[in-house]
């Protein structure tokens, strides 16, 4: 009986939907650890679950009454956390081009952009647009294919078909782009471990006020660091 309980305790569980059944990822991909990476329930992958753990630590109750927009479908956050939630899919009817966002300044408290920035030609314009529409009490959640996997960004200057339409693959030197494009904006880098596969990955948070900056740093502790820009204190 004790062995059965121990085995059950070790069963990986998705922190997004609570599922315990997993399947291969896109194009049959396995995790580097050899584990099935995609949740059969919510279809989350490593990056989604790492970010959900991060948001759980931040405390979703803070988002009650916040206005939110998410660029690209992403199970990381729960729309029910927010007072209002808008989803934009670029290729779908009504989808918004993040290089020219047709929304007013400070229109949203939460702006989520997951695996989109690498698909646009002018990432400088996109970053500034994402910040422009973010209200002072809020932040931008930015997720790009793991930039810590490569040292140097490869930018082709066009959407490469064999790279899923990516204009570029970011490397660790993405910090140089942040420094040039948004020099006054602090960029916080979070690093965590997926509870299902054990893979490490992360995301960037761009707080728009000193209060939000301190809240993020206090909640995430040593798992977050200032990656680019000045601290807000």
UniProtKB/TrEMBL annotation:
GO terms for molecular function: transferase activity. SUPFAM superfamilies: S-adenosyl-L-methionine-dependent methyltransferases. Pfam families: Methyltransf_23. Keywords: Plasmid, Transferase. This is Glycosyltransferase. The lineage of its organism: Bacteria, Pseudomonadati, Pseudomonadota, Alphaproteobacteria, Hyphomicrobiales.
